[in-house]
Amino acid sequence: PAEVIKGIAKLGLFGVTISEEYGGSGGDSVCLAIACQEISHASAGVGAIYLASLSLACYPIYKFGTREQKRLFVTPLAKGEKLACFALTETGAGSDPGTLETTALCQGDEYIINGTKIFITNGGEAETTVVFATIDKSLRHKGITAFIVDKNTAGFSVGKKERKLGIHGSSTTELIFENCHVPAINQLGETGRGLRIALEAIDSSRISVAAQAVGIAQAALDASLNYAKERQQFGQPIASFQAIQWMLADMGTNTEAARLLTYQAAFLKDKGLPFIKEAAMAKVFAAETAIDSSIKA
């Protein structure tokens, strides 16, 4: 939905957590959670595009990148001029990223990256990719290093596009690296510290995913309320039946609880306090609420 993405960019939402120095508006995690929630209330697909670019892929460049990397890559992302994706998952390396097979061989002032990533959100459209590769498989997680790869880099290509049950507006693809030459200056963070960078980004993005789920749950509740008031049976709207009222009450209660869990995690992150447990709790509860509310709807 290119026109919708352009509209979000014009509103400045792609830079909501980025400082003005790099094209953003200097907002916080609570602002981001609200934005993800409201966008996803209208479209879970657009919500996925948005959070994957800003919350998952742009975040590690903004936090761990050099000033030059932030100027080159974060600024156009914050302005919504480009999209980004986060390339960690492989066929045999999902929950256990220490087993990833993608390699990065240092040759002079560049790295040669080889490997394939799967299930990459925004993979088809992203012009900036944060990719994780190992400089030495024997080191397992201690060899994982992060790199920023431009879409036009030789040896980089987009592979298969997944056919999904839903969220069709957001592409999910393979990314293929075949002797992909990446300048050494595009290394993100310290050598061997890539897993820490990946996990920090994932921990932070759980808040946005929770907010996405809250938006979906709220949309299901709103649609249910409207329909329950319109649909007539036995001479009255079905909203007057207790069985329907119970369903709506449960949907409303769980949605509000999920929203508050999400805001709490965002608030703790903004205060520099531990938030990983709260973000995980918000994500799992909000996701289950979105599913349950959609089924009830």
The helix/strand order is: HHHHEEEEEEEEHEEHH
Count of runs of 4 or more consecutive helical residues: 7
Mean pLDDT across every amino acid position: 95
> Could you list the spans in which at least 5 consecutive residues all have pLDDT below 50?
none
Largest sheet: 4 strands, mixed
- CA(first)-CA(last) distance: 26 Å
Percent of residues in helices:
40-55%
Mass-distribution shape: elongated
Number of strands: 10
What does the secondary structure layout of this molecule look like, with pairings?
Elements: H1 2-10, H2 29-42, H3 44-64, H4 67-78, E1 84-87, E2 103-107, E3 110-121, E4 128-134, E5 144-150, E6 156-161, E7 172-183, E8 187-188, H5 194-230, E9 232-233, E10 236-237, H6 242-270, H7 276-296
Parallel strand pairs: 1-4
Antiparallel strand pairs: 2-3, 3-7, 4-5, 5-8, 6-7, 9-10
Descriptive account of the structure:
Helix content is 48%, strand content 20%. With 297 residues, it is of the alpha+beta class. Helix 3 (44-64) runs antiparallel to helix 4 (67-78) and helix 3 runs antiparallel to helix 5.
